[in-house]
Write a structure and sequence with these properties.
The chain is α/β, with parallel strands linked by helices. The chain folds into five domains: 12-120, Beta-Lactamase; 126-161, no CATH class; 176-326, P-loop containing nucleotide triphosphate hydrolases (Rossmann fold); 330-410, Helicase, Ruva Protein, domain 3; 421-464. It is built from 20 helices and 22 strands. The strands form seven sheets. Strands 2-1-6-5-4-3 form a six-stranded antiparallel beta sheet. Strands 13-16-19-12-20 form a five-stranded parallel beta sheet. α14 crosses α16 and α18 (421-440) packs across α19 (443-450). It starts with 11 loop residues before the first helix and ends with a helix.
Length: 466
């Protein structure tokens, strides 16, 4: 039975042609593997892509190349049900995309149909009572008998329910409009990198490059040339053609300095100079290079304590701390664990080619866990559970067994150390300090718990981390 309803004297083929030609919604059709086989003119206009750039291409590859974000095909194909997400095009346009699976007579996936609508058209029809959430964060509310239901917010397909996280997302959206430094703080694994990228995607510089640097992952002797670049032959081993630094690569876009607390103290002076003058001097050069970019820094350390211990410059801290955004730990927003768990379940199931499900009881069991590693720890737990759940159904027993194993290994007293007695004692001391700081959230509390001066703890952390 057809789902197309027309008068008997109306040509159905003509109706379909008119629908595709003049519909304001974008329509795109892929096969079961994600290759685009058809699209209408409105789709081309909405996403600012030429038909020849899209037809025959894999839709996941187009998303990877930045045509839009996030991708929806993989989730629809894996769950085999209709799903919606707010996408951002390469030019910052907000698109509400709905993917619908189409099956053949044997209930095998044959096509995925995408219907896409410009969110700015929808916003003109709405008159929210509070400031609207933009782009990837959007509000959905229903009016029933004159009473508005609780607003629901999503970030890249993840439902945000906690008031603490909603507040920080509101702040991130406001900050994104202005080219001022932002300092993201919070425990390891809370999602600082994701929020940094989100701020960039919502900013006027969204078409520029997003350059992310992990200050703790670059050897100290190489960090200056990595950040600021160098001229040819500036030092032994330098490129004969010179090298553009990561800061210069962010010109016109956003520079994200992750783990800023790990930046060497002497190099902090040069970074401060860049923030104040918007100019850099490559290693071996006396010629200033102008760089205009938004700077976002992130850390899981307590910077004021580092300032007191002379391991972080006070003037740099105030320069970076234009607008501070502190992300709450997962323990403070446990209501979001089920949504996050299902999000990771979909991602890893599609990646591994495993059909897995998560029971409500399993989600409730997860909400009782500590998750000291926050969202990152939850992600790893879901990945582990998908693999060990032989029948594909993750239940309470799986959660308890594998979460306990994770914690047991984390706090084990039988960690393998090697070397002389003095070296093994130093290794044990390093691990104990690291775990205590992670558990307490900052060095000040950790030092008090360990019964040592904070400056001593900080010195030992830095001396044992090299």
């Amino acid at each position: 039975m057809s789902n197309l309803y027309v008068l008997p004297n109306v040509n159905a083929h003509e109706f379909n042609s008119i629908l595709l030609e003049y519909a304001t919604d974008g329509i795109l059709l892929t096969d079961a593997t994600g290759h685009v086989i058809a699209l209408n003119k409105s789709y081309s206009t909405l996403f600012d892509v030429l038909p020849e750039e899209v037809l025959g291409r894999n839709i996941e590859k187009l998303a990877e190349e930045g045509a839009w974000s996030p991708s929806l095909f993989q989730r629809v194909a894996q769950k085999q049900e209709t799903l919606s997400v707010v996408q951002t095009t390469r030019h910052g346009k907000r698109i509400l995309s709905t993917g619908t699976p189409v099956f053949d007579d044997n209930q095998t996936l044959r096509y995925v149909l995408f219907n896409d609508r410009d969110m700015s058209l929808q916003s003109m029809l709405e008159s929210p009572t509070s400031e609207p959430i933009e782009v990837a964060v959007h509000a959905q509310s229903k009016e029933e008998h004159g009473i508005a239901e609780t607003e629901q917010y999503t970030l890249n397909g993840i439902v945000i329910k906690s008031a603490a996280m909603k507040k920080q997302l509101h702040l991130a959206l406001r900050v994104a409009k202005f080219p001022i430094p932002v300092l993201l703080t919070g425990e390891s694994g809370v999602g600082k990198s994701m929020i940094a990228r989100f701020i960039h995607d919502q900013s006027p510089r969204r078409e520029g490059t997003f350059v992310a640097i992990n200050c703790g992952a670059i050897p100290e002797q190489l960090m200056e040339s990595e950040l600021f670049g160098h001229t040819k032959g500036a030092f032994t081993g330098a490129s004969t053609r010179g090298k553009k630094g990561r800061i210069e690569a962010a010109h016109g876009g956003t520079l994200f300095l992750d783990e800023i607390s790990e930046m060497p103290y002497l190099l902090q002076v040069k970074l401060l100079q860049f923030l104040e003058t918007k100019q850099i001097y490559p290693v071996g050069s006396t010629v200033a290079v102008p760089v205009d970019c938004t700077v976002i820094a992130a850390t899981n350390q307590h910077i004021p304590s580092m300032i007191r211990n002379k391991t972080f410059r006070e003037d740099l801290y105030y320069r970076l701390n234009g607008v501070p955004i502190e992300l709450p730990s997962l323990r403070e927003r446990k209501e979001e664990i089920p949504s996050l768990a299902h999000f990771f379940l979909e991602q890893y199931s599609a990646r591994f080619g495993i059909s897995a499900t998560l029971t409500d009881a399993a989600c409730k069991a997860m909400q009782g866990l500590e998750f000291k590693g926050n969202v990152r720890e939850l992600s790893h737990l879901i990945q582990r559970l998908i693999i060990v759940a032989e029948q594909g159904c993750i239940d309470t027993d799986h959660v308890r067994e594998w979460a306990e194993i994770s914690v047991r290994y984390e706090i084990s007293d039988t960690d393998a150390y090697s070397g002389t007695l003095s070296e093994q004692v130093s290794q044990f001391e390093r691990d104990l300090i690291r775990k205590t700081v992670q558990r307490c959230g900052n060095q000040e509390k950790a030092a008090k718990e360990l019964g040592m001066h904070q400056s001593t703890l900080s010195r030992k952390m830095h001396s044992t981390s090299s």
